[in-house]
Amino acid sequence: MLNLYFNNTVLCLFKSTEIGMGLTGFGVFFLFFGMMLFFDKALLAIGNILFVSGLSFVIGLERTFRFFFQRHKVKATSFFLGGVFVVLIGWPIIGVILEIYGFFLLFRGFFPVAVGFIRRVPVLGSLLSLPGISTLVDKIGESNTMV
């Protein structure tokens, strides 16, 4: 168990959470790197496997299944996991498009929270208040869908 101190508060991270954060980070890296290298099949497949397994390590298997297989998230889960499957069978561009659409459907309830947090960050908050970006961010930030 790792103890992190932040503003006089102890944040305890268990080994499975630490491993999950590492796996998720490597998964995002491999996904990004695979897209930068013109949708390399192998890197995207490795990134998908690491991301999904890391997510299950961070929040636990039961909570991962409850998150993905809720009745109102069936469409989003189908697109996301279908995209992972399509990448694994060898069609990376179509698979990534399906994954991105499923990702936005799955995590759209978290976007207002993320936008609110980013608006408080000094440099990023000023970037989000630029004229062209602010209208888009306002639409994303005022979404009130349930998680």
Automatic annotation (TrEMBL):
The keyword Membrane applies. GO terms for biological process: endoplasmic reticulum to Golgi vesicle-mediated transport; retrograde transport, endosome to Golgi. The chain crosses the membrane at residues 21-39, 45-62, 74-94. It is found in: Golgi apparatus membrane. It is a multi-pass membrane protein. Keywords: Golgi apparatus, Membrane, Transmembrane, Transmembrane helix. One of its GO terms (cellular component) is cytosol. It holds the Pfam family Got1. Belongs to the GOT1 family. May be involved in fusion of ER-derived transport vesicles with the Golgi complex. This is Golgi transport 1Bb. It comes from Lates calcarifer.
